[in-house]
Structures are given as structure tokens and as C-alpha cells.
Amino acid sequence: MLDYDTLRLIWWALLGVLLAGFGVTGGFDLGVGAMLRVLGRTDAERKVLVNVVAPTWDGNQVWLILGAGAVFAAMPLAYATAFSALYPAMLAALFALFFRPTGFEYRAKVNDARWRNFWDWALVAGGALPAIVFGVAFGLILGGIPYHFDADMRVVMDGGVLDAVTPFALFAGVVSLVMLCMHGAAFVNLKTVGELQVRALTWMRRLAVALIVLLALGGLWVAKGLDGYVLHGPLAANQAVTPLMQHVTREAGAWMHNFAAHPWMWAAPAAAMAGAALAAWLAWYPLAALFFSGVSVAGVIATAGFAAFPFLLPSSTRPDHSLTLWSAAASQHTLEWMTAAAVVFVPIILAYTSWVFRVLRGPVHESDVNKNEYGTY
Q1: Domain locations in the chain?
Q2: CA pair distance 315, 1, nearest whole angstrom
Q3: Alpha-carbon distance 181 to 337, whole Å?
Q4: Which end of the chain is more exposed for a tag (fewer CB within 10 A), N or C?
């Protein structure tokens, strides 16, 4: 039987795995959507790009649904607080995501260039806006959100959502967009041929270089110009904790403490930068390039997680009320049942995802999508 502290650590790690799973699979879907009008210069090329991701995009969203569901069940206080603090941003991302299924399904329904053009731009919005919002959310986690809890543990916002948005959060949104566009271009490089593949390869290399530069700048910003949060004092082992029972302070450079204490964590930022560099270097080997692009995406997510640990949602106005892994987790009994379910279902999801991509392997040719007058989608 696992103890309560171990279960909380397991679910912190599993949430990271689910986020990384969505970043690596759903990430290239968002990237292809965001790059649709950049990579696809003709209607025929855009047909190919839509058919590159349309057969699998909905399956890739399973990781996002699982992640949201896991936060709801394993970290309910963090779920409730995040939806209170970031509700407008989450709604914006959700409505942008609505354009994806409608864009895929409706684009080929009417033989009209204006109709297809509208849905092309809808797919661009459905790829770019969520990518930015997800990045901003990570930036807010590191910068802190203005909220506190009252005596009855109800969330009280200390200002509007715009008060939470900081220059660093916006910077994180740009990093996320560049990263997922790189990953999307790597997927197009694998799944297309000819001029479209060469264009995707070129953009992947450019975006990989841009990502490396942005990650270096972001690292300097976090180390030198961004206050972090520190949880003081040992907490009672294997006991339930509330945000009103802890002491937290803000300190310059605090987000680097975990890396100093646990040098193995440097593997995450190293993977983020090395993955992007290797993706660019191995661009003419599409499968290897996509693999290392995925390594870069997972490395970026892991870097943010390691830096913030054990914080989930720091409070910029009342640091003591910050939500940590220890104070936001569900009960031990809940985590035990969820762990048992994860042991059964996560391998099934991984196996199914692997099978789907094996079945749908190989490039998408323009001649294939033109068998239908407007393309398969």
C-alpha cells in the first residue's frame, strides 16, 4: 500500500506525463493548424495539410481530456482555482478549439473558394490561439496569480484576469506558439513529399533556432528577473494540508532552487534545447526530426514542472495561500483508486495511439486527397 505522500508525488508525475502526451501528439496538430496558411500556399497544398492531421487529431485530444479530468479528480482545489482565475482565457481557448472539428468537417462541403478560405483561417485560429493560451498559463504558474482563500476556503480573486497577465506570461505564450509550430512543421515534414515537404523542413529549422534562442532568454529571465516561491518548514508526513496551514515567501531566483538541489533536473532543459537542435540538424531524416522535436516539447514542459515543484498555482498577492502538490491533492482514498485506474488504462491508451499511427503511417499525396473533388476533408 502506497502512503499518501507517495501517491501525491505519483499524481504530480502523471499529470506531467499527460501534459507531455498532449504536447507531443496534440501539439503537432495545433502547430499544423497554426502554420496552415504559411506552409500551404495553394488550395491543393492546404487540402494535403488538413488531411495530414484530420484523421488523428480527435484521438490526440484524449490527452487533453485526460489531463483535465485528472486535475479535476486528483487536484480538485487546483482545478477549481484555475477555472476561477483563468476562466476568460480558458473559454477563449475552448471556443478556438471549436473551430477545429468544424473546420475539418465543413471545409470540403461547399465548392466555393471563399468558403474554404474562411475555414482555413478558422483552423489557423484553432491552432494558434490555444497554443498561445496554454503557454500563457504556464507563464502565469511561474509568475503567480492574484487570488486568496477566505476562511471558508472559497477562492477570492484579487483583481481581474488582465491583472494576472504579466510580460513573462505573454513571453511564455510566444515560446509555446513557436515550439508547437516547430513540432507541427516536423510532422508535415514526415507526412508530405515534394515542395510542401521542403517548405516544412525549412520552417522547422527556422523555428527550432528561434525556440533555442527563446528558451535561453527565458532561462535568463527566470534566473535573474523573475521572483519565485519557496515553501518553508517541513509539513506533517502523510497528512492532509490546506493552503491556510503553510508558509510561503517570494524570493528572487527561487525557481532555480530545485535545479541546484537536484542536478539531474537539468536533463529537462538540456533535452528541450538539444531536441530542437537535433530536429533541425536531422531535418532530412523526417522520423528522427519528429522524434527529437517531441523530445524538445516534453523537455520544455518538464522544465517548467521541475522549476515550479511543488507549486501548482502560486498566489502573487497572498503567497501563503499558494496551491502546492501537498495542499491541493484529493484524499488518499481517491488517489489510490485513480492510481489503480491509471495502471490499467494509460497503457491501453498508449497502445491504441501507437497502433493508430502505425496504421496511418506514410505520406499524404496530393493525388490521394484529389480523388475527392475537395479532398477527403
Answers
A1: 4-369
A2: 34
A3: 37
A4: N
Element (H, E) at 313: strand 311-313
Give dist(CA 145, CA 251) in Å, integer: 16
Q: Is 312 helix (H, G, I), strand (E, B) or coil?
A: strand
CA distance between the termini of the chain: 50
Alpha helices in 61-106 (DSSP H): 62-74, 76-85, 87-106
Give how far Cα 235 sits from Cα of 231, 324, 326, Å. 10, 12, 9
CA-based nearest residue to 20, from 201, 259, 247, 272:
272
Q: Which of 83-87, 148-152, 324-328 has the highest mean pLDDT?
A: 324-328
| Higher local confidence (pLDDT), 77 or 245 | 77
Query: What is the rounded CA–CA span in Å between residue 222 and residue 253?
Result: 7
CA 241 to chain centre: 28
Q: State the sign of the Cα–Cα–Cα–Cα dihedral 314, 316, 317, 320.
A: positive
- Give Rg (Cα) of the chain: 21
How far is Cα 329 from Cα 19, in angstroms, rounded to an integer? 17
**CA 86 to chain CA centroid, nearest Å:** 16
The identity of residue 318, as a single letter, is R
**Which DSSP string do the residues of 247-276 spell out, in sequence order?**
EEEEEETGGGHHHHH-GGGGHHHHHHHHHH
Q: Looking at this protein, which amino acid is placed at residue 129? A: L
Residue type, 2: L
pLDDT digits (tens, 9 = 90+) for 248-301: 888 888 999 999 999 999 999 999 999 999 999 999 999 999 999 999 999 999
